[in-house]
Amino acid sequence: MIEFIFLNQNFPFTVALTIMLFIALLEGVSTCLGAGVSHFIDSVIPDIDVDADIDIDVDADVDIDADIDADGPDLFHSGVLTRTLGWLRIGKVPFLIILIIFLTSFGLTGLFIQSILLNALGFMLPGLIASVITLIVVLPVVRFLTGIIARIIPKDETSAVSEKSFIGRVAVITLGKAVQGNPAQAKLKDEFGTTHYFMVEPDLPDTEFNQGESILIVKQTRSGFKAIRNSNPVLMGND
User: pTM higher than 0.90 for the full model?
Assistant: First the structure.
């Protein structure tokens, strides 16, 4: 078994499991010392507070409406990286947990696939090819597991407030750069001080939103929301 794990064809999966064990060990030691690695990672993620608990009078020629349809990210209608991060619930589940789930799933699934091939067909795939196949298999598994964790761990996000109520509120871009057809992750706080994360793109063409930029939500779409740039400092909210 040990010889099988350290075969060259299994190198990517062995490395993934080794990194996972190292991270888990480091987290355990640092937690005993009073500062976990996950806390440090979360602390360096931008966290700009936006309080949208005010009345907004939008007199521009922008239609503020809601076009509600499906309720999930669409990987094929936006930039792959930004959309995938949102799809894997980055921001809803601590990043370190997602990383450990991914590394564990990738390593074990890869070894399982190679073992099946070796025992059934007498050969193993090259490491690179096996890694691509394993990645395709593992990503939906990671999303499923993070979905379970998102429901059971304490978190800021909640679905108690209707997403339709986000329209007319101020949000902040937290991950990626948003252009039409390429959403980025944004967040806002509702009237109860609860943080919500979602995908957003500009409502107007030739507009882009960068990380940390304040925006005004104007429309809900099938895969997220559309927004305009918030140029009114009065709508920045209170700290």
Answer: no
